[in-house]
């Protein structure tokens, strides 16, 4: 099941810098774990913003919800989820 | 140079059906040509809508503009272009 | 896989009345077929508008896309799809 | 009387964690009480967000107002209420 | 059951003038019938626009839906329905 | 002179509870004074929100401005003012 | 009674040019009549658009409604009305 | 050079009352100075809000920018600037 | 006097192709005339859209209004005008 | 590669004044460095707001992202990036 997730991160100006760094490190570890597992298929940065466009490939909506809401930076994120499906014209196997 | 392009297609209800089919066939050919050339990196359908989310990888903004505005269905499309760049945490080579 | 679909119908004022009735009859038949199959789980009318709120329970995003885009009234509809999942507090089995 | 209520919860980052847990537990109890009473007919989670889509079946607008504004998490919620009615095509008795 | 309905009327510039007058006359008759029956409690014009703010007092959402969608000018209207309830501070009996 | 005023109240979560109660009591007194004077013609609650829809009948825009900005809860309110006038079809004297 | 009215004019591309000129001439006559009468106090063009910002000074909302809806170009206009009142700091008599 | 400036003032609830009064007094002085100089041509209050609609007549955009950003209440204001020009139909000399 | 103008062009699908080409040729001539005169200082295309971002440097708002509304493609354009002024940090003479 | 960047700056009212001045000085130095390098091609102030419209000419989206996110005032800015390309009608070499 494919979905695009657009994530915007807003960490308050007065949030503890060290704690923020710790959360970002955890976020990166979790992200790479999910990338290796094939769940978090793609990620790109949005130019000029602390934001990304991501493509997920998961078993179910519940799995996606659990993945997203347990991200270390989740409390600082606004998320928009767009359900996608394979485009019949695509020649690429991995645009499934 | 990476960019996300969100395309929405609106063909008027009274538009000639045969002409529409002819344009869709050309659109598909042009799309696959660009996909094979590595310019149109990804495409996914947006569930429930005549719309797609696409990722382009081009030499320049001008090349992207020329590709998009010469699509056979361009006169029926609304497009939103979001400039992207590689995410430093990504382990995938092709999320460049 | 659960999703809320909000459908708004706009049939142009000058559209052929008989053809509109024919399409509405087909829409109703197709709807009831999908309701019996358990795919179109719920439907409610939005007060004062030619619109509905529906809950779908399907195998995949692709199945949902195929169902929605093949509805007889689809060319006259604007759709908004919101992916849902079971709420852990719910006591009802069928809010799965 | 049927209504869809879309609830978004925003608990401030610096809100006391224990108090938040206490309120969530009360919210769940109150929700299940109302679900058993048949007032809160359905609830689903919105994927990736601390939000739900709910269907209420109440005696009157006043009853709905009292139910919603006395929820333990009400001070942290934004609510959008959409009045619904039974769809004449529905075969399901409980889409009343 | 109380509701505010905000109605905006847009009759196309090229719509037949006589037919428009006929519909407006029917609209007025139907309005006054509903006003006398106590269903359409209040109506006010919005300054500078072909629009009104109305208060309805009906038995159910279904009754409101049937009233609104059978108005002679309904095909030309956009409607926004806001569910209301009596304000506990009001001293007026008829703000029920 | 008639106007609809839509008032939304937002009292910050950490605002002193006793002071809030004191302001609400004053607000109610002031409201009923204005209702008795015939200035604040109608008030209804918006279901599920700390908000109301009100109809004012005043001598002038200046009088309305003075009434609204001197309400005890004014500093916590967002207001939208829509100028209205009597609808010529209305049979009710008091929809003046 | 003071009000700002923002008027946007949209005459369809295929509207009869002569009829449009005739309406514009009538509009100008009616405008100057109202300006001389002191009702239409000010008018300014919005740069780059077929639009104006106007200040009216009328007896009542009803008078304003009648003036606006009887303008020759009214069927082609979108209007936004903002009720104003004299600013207490103003030294100018005619900002009443 | 004419411009409409719409100013909305938001002073935080916990801002020092005396300091706010001091700033408002300075704002009024500065306003009247500019009004006398013919720069701040008109000002009106927006009913029910701490906001105004103003017309400026200045030498240049830079002069307008300097005037607006040096207002004592500027840090609490949101401003929207709309460039205007004389309307050719106006009979009033001072709508220049 | 500097201003940014964002122009979006929408030529209807069924508009005469030859007439459109004729208007585009005139538009280009007029543009280059204004560019040579130093009035139309800059122009850039917006990627993927029939739109541009332009910078004008004119004597007055009236001059800008006359230039914009007399463009051959003006009837097909939506324009947004943003008044600008020189940035004090700029080292470039021509960012005046 | 050309892009328009619209930057809005919001420094909280209670932010340390000296630190703000220090950041603004650094911002100006960094800006002029980038202007001299030909990366930050143009900058203009938006009248009445702490905001600018800028044109960048960079090697890649990644370079633009690095430039923008490392600006001293970046944590206080909201940015909107619009990809541009040379307009074929332009006679100016530097509108490349």
From TrEMBL, chains A, B, C, D, E, F, G, H, I, J:
Alphabetical keyword list: Aromatic hydrocarbons catabolism, Isomerase
InterPro entries xrefs: Dimeric_a/b-barrel (IPR011008), MLI_dom (IPR026029), Muconolactone_d_Isoase (IPR003464)
Enzyme kind, highest EC tier: isomerase
Keyword Isomerase set for record: yes
EC number annotated for this UniProt entry: 5.3.3.4
Residue ranges occupied by any Muconolactone isomerase domain in the UniProt entry: 1-89
Keyword Acyltransferase attributed: no
Database matches in Pfam families: MIase
MF term (GO), any: muconolactone delta-isomerase activity
Catalytic activity field: (S)-muconolactone = (4,5-dihydro-5-oxofuran-2-yl)-acetate
Matches recorded under Gene3D superfamilies: Dimeric alpha+beta barrel
Pathway recorded for this protein: Aromatic compound metabolism; beta-ketoadipate pathway; 5-oxo-4,5-dihydro-2-furylacetate from catechol: step 3/3
Family to which the UniProt record says this protein belongs: Belongs to the muconolactone Delta-isomerase family.
Subunit structure: Homodecamer.
Name the record gives this protein: Muconolactone Delta-isomerase
Organism from which the protein derives: Bradyrhizobium jicamae
